Amino acid sequence: MRKKVTVVGAGNVGANVALRIADQELADVVLVDVVEGVPQGKGLDILESGPVQGYDVNITGSNDYEPTANSDIVVITAGFPRKPGMSRDDLLIANHEIVKAATEQAVKYSPNAILILVTNPLDAMCWTAYKVSGFSKNRVVGMAGVLDTARYRTFIAQELNVSVENIAAMVLGGHGDTMVPLVRLTSVAGIPLTELLPQEAIDRLVQRTRDGGAEIVKYLKTGSAYYAPSAATVEMVESILKDKKKVLPCAALLEGEYGVNGMFVGVPVKLGSRGIEKIYELQLSPEEKAMLSKSVTAVEELVGVLQKKMAGA
């Protein structure tokens, strides 16, 4: 019996997640969206690519959650996209309501699923889904670090004119301007990045990584990135469905690790069939600790706003 993945939100990110899952023959996919006809149309379009691409999976679209029953994974991409000049944080309240409703429905029909959050502001949306679902912490995970790390690796590869496959890197922290690319642990085929580039160049690449999403929003003007975010999401989906146990930077609920309690923060985790199977606690330098602390504070501020809202204050 094939695995089943529900993708909530049939916009650019969601549709590309569905397409990549189909392309890799990972699972049957149910696309869910509130707009009538959109998930049905995109689902059928992806299904009709099967004879050409050579995949045998079923793709369906729906405006309600009944067809999503017994999904192994529910990916939540639904939400308002960023517009130019808009921060991820501006999206907070609007997307909180969307993620809350999506989580309630997903949990109702797929009580044993693993939730992957993609909606921004990512870390706060993970917290929302965790609180609403009542799931154990290993079954709620956020996609951010895989994308941020992919951008970081891309920029390093461009700078050095080498294969992206040679670059090992890790980006921690919240998904936003305060993310923490770990330069100290970045290497090219085992060669430390600090031996290959001057500090000025490294600083420039780190900043470009932090601005990676905004750079694309600026170009597109009417939307945000979707090809790389969908690729990053599907790497996580694959690791869970195939029990690959890949170590990837993902937003996870910390309970004492890195001195953080009760917040979702991007850290290296092992992703397997049970979701987050291990959180790796790195020994950070004082400078890295300070940057991570700043990133956590930014997440705490957002969650604080949501806590007040949920308490009816």
Describe the structure.
The chain has 313 residues and is α/β, with parallel strands linked by helices. The protein has a domain at 4-142: Rossmann fold. Helix content is 42%, strand content 20%. The protein has helices spanning 12-23, 38-47, 50-53, 92-109, 122-133, 145-160, 199-210, 212-220, 227-241, 286-310, and strands spanning 4-8, 28-32, 59-62, 73-76, 114-117, 140-142, 167-168, 171-172, 180-181, 187-188, 191-192, 246-255, 261-272, 275-279. The protein has a six-stranded parallel sheet, sandwiched between helices. The chain has a three-stranded antiparallel sheet with strand order 7-10-11, with helices on one face. Strands 12-13-14 form a three-stranded antiparallel sheet. Helix 1 (12-23) crosses helix 9 (227-241) and helix 5 packs across helix 10.
Summarize it:
This protein is an alpha/beta fold and 313 residues long.
Describe the structure using short key phrases.
six-stranded parallel beta sheet, 313 residues, three-stranded antiparallel beta sheet, alpha/beta, Rossmann fold, 42% helix
The gross shape turns out to be: globular
CATH class of one domain: Alpha Beta
Helix/strand order: EHEHHEEHEHEHEEEEEHHHEEEH
Mean pLDDT figure: 95
The CATH homology group name of one domain: NAD(P)-binding Rossmann-like Domain
Radius of gyration: 19 Å
Tell me roughly what share of residues is in helical segments: 40-55%
Main sheet record: 6 strands, parallel
Spatial order of the strands in the main sheet? 3-2-1-4-5-6
Q: Per CATH, which architecture of one domain?
A: 3-Layer(aba) Sandwich
How many extended strands? 14
Estimate what percentage of residues fall within beta strands: 15-25%
List the quaternary state of the chains. single chain
**Parts with pLDDT < 50 across at least 5 consecutive residues:** none
Distance between the termini: 47 Å
Number of helices: 10
Q: CATH fold name of one domain, please?
A: Rossmann fold
